[in-house]
Each structure stands twice: as structure tokens, then as C-alpha cells.
Write a structure and sequence with these properties.
Shape: globular
Number of domains: 1
Radius of gyration: 16 Å
Order of helices and strands: HHHHH
Helix content: 55-70%
Number of helices: 5
Structural class: mainly alpha
Strand content: under 5%
Distance between the termini: 30 Å
Number of strands: 0
Length: 174
């Protein structure tokens, strides 16, 4: 069981990096161009808001993909079936995060307001769905491993967000 969980965490690592790196990169480069360019949806609310930027989107995909390529260079401990699989996981994570922001805006939640479950798991669920749709189920896949992976992801997400808050990278600790 532990071996499957380690494989699952290594497998999803590009998505973790893709999801977590934009806040750091945008802060470092000091530039943030909102993906919705300030546009509003049919409900009068921003489509995504200021938190989803082109710089964050592309840097997340790039850094997540690089982490996956490093794993492949180290002998592929994540068991990727294609050199493009880390890119797909990273893209899926970023799309899941964008979808979460879109839904939060439709619900009337402002940037930074919590949406328990969606905030912590939306990116990883979307990454897995897209990757599984393209490549099929990985060797580590079973329902218990996925449940534990989602629990680990939720706690890691909460912990890394709190750390980013303490470091002044985020204005909320969640």
C-alpha cells in the first residue's frame, strides 16, 4: 500500500508544482495580467478575477512539466507512460484551478474566500481526470490509494497555503 501511495504522489507531483508555483513566480516577476482581462460574465461578476493570470498559468505548466521531466531523467519513479504525461498533469491542474475560480465567481465568492474541497482538490481531480482520459489508469490506481492521495493532497494544500501566508506570499492562510 505504501509503495502505491508513494507512486501516486510522485505521479501527481507535476500537478502539485503547477498549482503551487504561480503565486511565487508572479510575486518574483512582479507582473500579473489577469486571464479574463477584467471581463465580466453574464452575471455581472468577473469571469475569473485577478488571481488567475497568464504569468501564473504558463509558469505553473512549465515548472510542473520540468519537475516531471526531472523524474523521468531520474529513472521515471512516477511511471509516466509518455514524456508528455507531466505536461498533461500540469495543464490539468491549471485548468482545474481556473475552473474552480470560475465556479467561485459564479457563486459570488470573492478572491481569497474559501470554497472547502474545491480549493484543495479541484486541481488534482481535474489533472487526474484529463491524464486518465488520455493515458488510462496508472499501475498504482485503486480506490483506496486515490482516497488516501486526495486526503494527503488536502492536508498538503492547507499546509503549503499556510506557509505561503506566513511568508507573505498570500493574504489568507487557506
Amino acid at each position: 500500500m505504501l509503495e502505491k501511495l508513494v507512486s501516486a504522489i510522485l505521479y501527481i507531483l507535476p500537478a502539485y508544482v503547477a498549482n503551487g508555483s504561480p503565486v511565487v513566480v508572479v510575486r518574483l516577476i512582479g507582473k500579473a495580467t489577469p486571464m479574463d482581462l477584467g471581463a465580466k460574465a453574464w452575471d455581472g461578476r468577473r469571469i475569473l478575477g485577478d488571481g488567475k493570470t497568464f504569468e501564473g498559468f504558463f509558469s505553473g505548466i512549465a515548472l510542473g512539466s520540468i519537475v516531471g521531466l526531472i523524474l523521468i531523467a531520474l529513472g521515471n519513479p512516477a511511471s509516466y507512460r509518455s514524456i508528455l504525461e507531466p505536461l498533461i498533469l500540469s495543464l490539468g491542474a491549471m485548468l482545474g484551478d481556473i475552473l474552480g475560480s470560475f465556479i467561485k465567481r459564479r457563486l459570488g465568492l470573492k478572491r481569497g474566500q474559501p470554497a472547502p474541497g474545491m480549493d484543495q482538490l479541484g486541481f488534482v481531480v481535474c489533472a487526474l481526470i484529463i491524464s486518465f482520459a488520455i493515458y488510462g489508469l496508472p499501475d498504482w490506481f485503486d480506490s483506496l490509494t486515490v482516497i488516501i492521495l486526495l486526503l494527503v493532497t488536502a492536508y498538503l494544500h492547507l499546509g503549503t497555503n499556510y506557509l505561503a501566508y506566513l511568508l507573505g506570499l498570500k493574504s489568507e492562510p487557506y
